[in-house]
Amino acid sequence: MKKIESTDKEQYKFELIKNVVDGNMTKYTASFKLDISIRQINRLITSYEQNGKEAFKYKNRNQKAK
User: Fold this and answer.
1) C-alpha dihedral sign at 42, 48, 34, 27
2) In angstroms, what CA-CA distances link 45 with 2, 33, 54?
3) Cβ-proximal residues to 44 (8 Å cutoff; 6+ apart), any chain
4) Tens digits of per-residue pLDDT, 2-33?
């Protein structure tokens, strides 16, 4: 299993979504803290359930600019 390095922002988002999935926080509270819509929270929850922590990794990391 490879280790996933994450930035502070990615880690914060992961922790909030994990709390929502675990039932410790509402979707509304998470959307307020992240300043995104409930619909985006639902997308993050789905992605978290499918991919785990890797879902929050920025996709263009370590790519060369064109």
Assistant:
1) positive
2) 22, 15, 12
3) 13, 17, 55, 56
4) 555 667 888 898 899 999 999 999 999 999 99
**Dihedral angle of Cα 40, 28, 48, 54, to the nearest 10 degrees:** 80
Q: How do residues 25-58 score in pLDDT, each as one tens digit?
A: 999 999 999 999 999 999 999 998 988 887 777 6
Report CA-CA distances (Å) from 64 to 4, 6, 15, 61.
Answer: 20, 19, 29, 9
Q: Whole-model pTM? A: 0.75
Place of tokens 């803290």: 33
| DSSP secondary structure letters along 2-62 | ------HHHHHHHHHHHHHHHTSS-HHHHHHHHT--HHHHHHHHHHHHHHGGGGGS-TTTT
